[in-house]
Amino acid sequence: MLSIITQITEEIQELIKDDPVRPEIPLEQRINQQSKIYVLKDDGTGKASAVVCVKFLPKIPESVDELLNTMNGSSTAVFYTIWSYAQGAGRTLIEQAQAEIKQHNPEVTTFVTLSPKTEMARKFHHKNGATTYRENADSVNYLYK
Fold first, then answer.
1. Can you give the pLDDT at residue 73?
2. Residues 6 or more apart whose Cβ sits within 8 Å of residue 8
3. What is the pTM of this model?
């Protein structure tokens, strides 16, 4: 079950503490008019299986600073952190979040990541159908179709 988080709750405050990629980004930057958090929940228990944070921008950012400070536009969905509590849940979450965005936000035409420059990130995104779009000074953008 896919949940879209649009307000700060105690549950999301606890989940964000587990962010291994971008723990420095404040919760207020993750949930606002340009940003959403998608949570994949186990149908049986209702517990989170995976979490992804997405920001909607007019262009593909090259850095966290650009991610946080770019405004006015929403043609690009930037997946900038993801983590999972169950094997395979990250891939399922990316697929479901992308499908939900396509259905409800037709202005979004580009789906990318702002990922750390790690082998783990490269393997995860390539295994899940993304291609390397651009390598930046401190990050990599992977493009999803």
1. 78
2. 27, 28, 31
3. 0.93
